[in-house]
Amino acid sequence: MLAEHGRFVTTQTRGREQVEDLVAVRDMVASGGVRAAIDRSYTLDRIREAHRYVEEGHKQGNVVVLVARG
């Protein structure tokens, strides 16, 4: 559900990718015009807990899995 005057942005395309569209999305994110709705973050060692949280229908935004650089 979007807030009033909210924006929906996706990187999925309908057949053909338009570079101009992806650049526009990049620019909106960079300028702060679009914000990701992050519900929770989990470290990779807690991936089962993250899946359980999503599958039980609790999430209200995106669930992020943090992967450490090796």
Briefly note the structural class of the backbone. Answer: alpha+beta
Oligomeric nature of the chains = single chain
Poorly predicted segments: none
Order of helices and strands: HEHE
The number of helices is 2
Can you offer a commentary on this structure?
It is a single chain. With 70 residues, the chain is α+β, with helices and mostly antiparallel strands. It folds into 2 domains: 1-35, no CATH class; 36-70, no CATH class. Strand 1 (38-43), helix 2 and strand 2 form a beta-alpha-beta unit. The chain has 2 helices and 2 strands; from the N terminus they run αβαβ. The protein has helices spanning 19-31, 47-55; strands at residues 38-43, 62-66. It starts with 18 loop residues before the first helix and ends with a strand. The model has no long low-confidence stretch (mean pLDDT 83).
Question: What would a concise description of this structure say?
Answer:
This protein is α+β, with helices and mostly antiparallel strands and 70 residues long. The chain contains 2 helices and 2 strands. The protein has 2 domains: 1-35, no CATH class; 36-70, no CATH class.
